[in-house]
Amino acid sequence: MAKALNKKLGELPAARRRRILTEADRLQAEYVTLQKLRKAMKLTQ
User: Fold this and answer.
1) pLDDT at 45
2) Which tens digits make up the pLDDT trace of 29-44?
3) End-to-end CA distance of the chain
């Protein structure tokens, strides 16, 4: 049976969890930036 992501993250050490969440935030910001750029340039992926 698969584990829920929140449960799996909760089992990790705090420092590791913090690094993972920081990287996830960075990737999300990059995605939004690229999305806005494509929209401004009227491009599709």
Assistant:
1) 67
2) 999 999 999 899 988 7
3) 35
Distance (Å, whole) CA 34 – CA 14:
30
Q: For the purposes of burial, counting CB atoms within 10 Å of the CB of 17, is it exposed (0-12), middle (13-18) or buried (19 or more)? A: middle
Helix, strand, coil percentages for the chain (3-state, nearest 5): 75, 0, 25
**In whole angstroms, what is the distance from residue 12 CA to residue 19 CA?**
11
Is residue 17 a contact partner of residue 9, using CB atoms and an 8 Å limit? Answer: yes
What six digits make up the tokens of 10?
């909760």
Strands (E), 1-45: none
- Global confidence as pTM: 0.70
